[in-house]
Design brief:
This protein is mainly alpha-helical. Helix content is 79%, strand content 0%. It has one domain. Helix 6 (84-95) runs antiparallel to helix 11. The chain is globular and about 50 Å long.
């Protein structure tokens, strides 16, 4: 959806603003519904941590990702971005003192190998020379991994619904402040397709996934969740084949099977 929106010559910050503007009312409503829990559990220290990880997660990680997509193709972006499960493992070990298991290391290697195989024939590998684009996506992976590790610490304290609502409201506020400094304030000048795509991103790529991710982290922990999330590129390729009529190659099918094997390694006892 991001690539489709960029066709209409919209800049990164404005597109992020539209995405968050459509998301914010939903987060506000859910936070208001859980106000009693919010008032009981939210201490100044925890609120400070929520602000930090809300800033790192869906604001800074999304901003770096959107910027990176202006320099490199989505296929290469996926491959670079999915270094984040490895980052999550090491951050969880360093900050949360969570042991890295043999199964987790095997799963990371297998799933990442599968992702590379899936995108092996896609155009874009020559863009590795584009240092700016590659660096931006690496920063996106690092900030998103930090958000997941922070979520692993905060979700048991606040619950997945309250944490997600607060963190995402912080992200929305960060995007709005950013836009105030760099935006042109011509928000009504875009084609209707841009607003439709932004609404789609808000509901299906922001609100729903954000709550599902928090529940998954609650059940699996950040490390195992990040590995299971490697299934994302598999579903993207399958959906593109079903709904967009894109060709499904042998490399993609083999890579998908490899990813599924890797995910199995980390979920078989869950």
């Amino acid at each position: 959806m991001v690539k489709l929106a960029y066709v209409h010559e919209i800049d990164t910050v404005t597109l992020l603003l539209f995405r968050m503007m459509f998301s914010l009312p939903i987060y506000l409503a859910i936070a208001a519904w859980n106000f009693s829990v919010l008032k009981e559990k939210l201490t100044p220290r925890i609120f400070g941590a929520v602000i930090l990880f809300g800033f790192l997660g869906y604001y800074l990680a999304s901003y770096f990702d959107f910027l990176g997509l202006q320099y490199i193709k989505a296929s290469l972006e996926r491959i670079i971005l999915f270094i984040y499960p490895t980052i999550v493992l090491f951050l969880s070990w360093f900050f949360l003192k969570k042991r890295i298991t043999k199964n987790q290391m095997i799963a990371v290697v297998i799933t990442y190998a599968g992702i590379i195989v899936m995108y092996l024939q896609e155009p874009g590998f020559s863009e590795l020379s584009n240092v700016t684009g590659v660096l931006l996506i690496v920063l996106s992976a690092l900030t998103y991994a930090s958000y997941l590790v922070g979520s692993d610490w905060l979700i048991p304290k606040l619950g997945p619904v309250v944490f997600t609502s607060l963190a995402m409201m912080i992200s929305c506020a960060c995007v709005a402040v950013h836009y105030c400094f760099v935006g042109d304030f011509e928000l009504m000048s875009y084609p209707m397709e841009v607003y439709a795509l932004s609404l789609g991103m808000a509901v299906f790529s922001t609100v729903i996934p954000s709550y599902l991710i928090s529940y998954a982290i609650k059940l699996l922990g950040a490390s195992d969740f990040s590995i299971v999330a490697s299934f994302g590129p598999v579903s993207t390729i399958v959906l593109a084949w079903i709904f967009l009529g894109e060709r499904l190659t042998v490399f993609q099918m083999v890579g998908a099977i490899v990813v599924i094997i890797g995910v199995y390694f980390v979920t078989r006892k869950k």
